[in-house]
Amino acid sequence: MAYSDKVLDHYENPRNVGSFGKDDDTVGTGMVGAPACGDVMKLQIRVGADGVIEDAKFKTYGCGSAIASSSLVTEWVKGKTLDQALTIKNTHIAEELALPPVKIHCSILAEDAIKAAVADYKQRHGASTAEAAPVEAKQHAA
């Protein structure tokens, strides 16, 4: 299977690798994946007082597509509000990286990591459970 140049670039030169302190009040952490199959993704966002994501970090254990998806979304979420970050969908990630169908699950993990990080941040800052729930959960409840 041939990877796109963008996947190779993000895999060979990943952006924003690392982590923030887990006790940092300005940080939301999303940990997603299935350790049994090997893909685990941790995404952290640092949110400013104005509600805008100022920085993002990731640690991913998985294939090149999973690492590239993580790296890409850390770039995409910076400068966005929490609600804007939630509009990033796995289809956008897969399209940008030209992921083959067998690697679409990597882009889904990245989308889920964004949702989990935003939900964690909101929960830590007193947002109600319904408010912190992923958008899809709210839509199904309506």
Automatic annotation (TrEMBL):
Molecular function in Gene Ontology: iron ion binding; iron-sulfur cluster binding
InterPro entries the record matches: ISCU, NIF_FeS_clus_asmbl_NifU_N
Signal peptide: none
GO biological process terms, semicolon-separated: iron-sulfur cluster assembly
Coiled coil: none
NIF system FeS cluster assembly NifU N-terminal domain span: 2-125
SUPFAM superfamilies: SufE/NifU
UniProt record similarity statement: Belongs to the NifU family.
Reported function: A scaffold on which IscS assembles Fe-S clusters. It is likely that Fe-S cluster coordination is flexible as the role of this complex is to build and then hand off Fe-S clusters.
Protein name: Iron-sulfur cluster assembly scaffold protein IscU
Organism name: Caballeronia sordidicola (Burkholderia sordidicola)
